[in-house]
Fold this sequence. Notes:
This protein is mostly beta strands and 204 residues long. It has two helices and 13 strands. The chain has one domain.
Amino acid sequence: MKYLAFILFLLISFHFVYSQPDPEDKQMYIGVNNVEPEYEVQHYVEPIGTYWEYNDITEVWSISSNPLGEASKITTIGESNFNRIDLWPGWNFFWQGTEPPNEDWALGFYKVYYIPEIQDDNDAYFYIDCRVDKYGTIDPPYGNPDFYVYVDVPVNQYYYKAAGTVPWIPINKSEIVRIWDVHDVDPPSSNSLHLDTGLGYYCL
């Protein structure tokens, strides 16, 4: 009887553990520091030019069917919990799917900026270049594509770091942050990213 009770306990425990929803995966987490608990900040990732998506069926990269030039927005309220980075909102890739409060992005060249409640003297922004055809796939060395960005609002300063790394690295205003530098991978591969206009040439 004790043996059966033990088996039943294991089955219930197994069901409980594996029925819990997994946290939504994000490729670029976004956060805020040094603001009041109710302070609202709108974060934008705006594509500059063409960006690409991967088709799992055809296994080909092509220009996104989503509207080009449309910025993807996320709103944060209060500070980020730097002890629980998995709780941050962020952007996921179109082809991997996402749910609110997370938004989408794809491979391309983006402007990252924010609009706080008080818009005086806010000119903090940077560019992120993630035009790498392996990024976000299971292929090494981009099998873990996650990285983190936060803005220190009082001084309009952005910082980033790759998953599992310390310390935070400051980002200068208008700086181009290349995703292969974030993940310390060189050289990048972009041969599969092309203009699907039938002209047969690569964009990068």
